[in-house]
Design brief:
By secondary structure, the protein is mostly helical. It has two helices and no strands. It has one domain. The longest helix is centred in the C-terminal third of the chain and has 28 residues. It starts with about 45 loop residues before the first helix and ends with a helix. The structure holds zinc ion (ZN).
């Protein structure tokens, strides 16, 4: 199979979520095209459907992971 004739793929684009309706938006600086609210202000479906809690949990897990790595570095230096 000759793959050289196949179209080349492009890297996927990462889109932010509207913090009101939880739909993807292109630009968080302009009102959301889905709900017409400020995409940077949490509310509506974003809060009600647990996205807000999930974000908080992800941030918490990230901080815990970084703390564990720092602790590992400290322990390695002490040995
Ligand atoms: Zn929206």
């Amino acid at each position: 199979m000759d793959l050289s004739t196949m179209p080349k793929g492009k890297p996927s684009v990462s889109l932010p979520l509207c913090l009101n309706c939880a739909e993807y938006v292109l630009d968080q600086a302009v009102p959301c095209p889905h709900c017409n609210h400020d995409p940077m202000k949490p509310g509506g479906r974003y809060k009600d459907d647990g996205f807000y809690a999930r974000d908080a949990l992800e941030r918490l897990l990230d901080v815990m992971e970084r703390a564990a790595k720092l602790q590992e570095n400290v322990e390695n230096k002490q040995e």
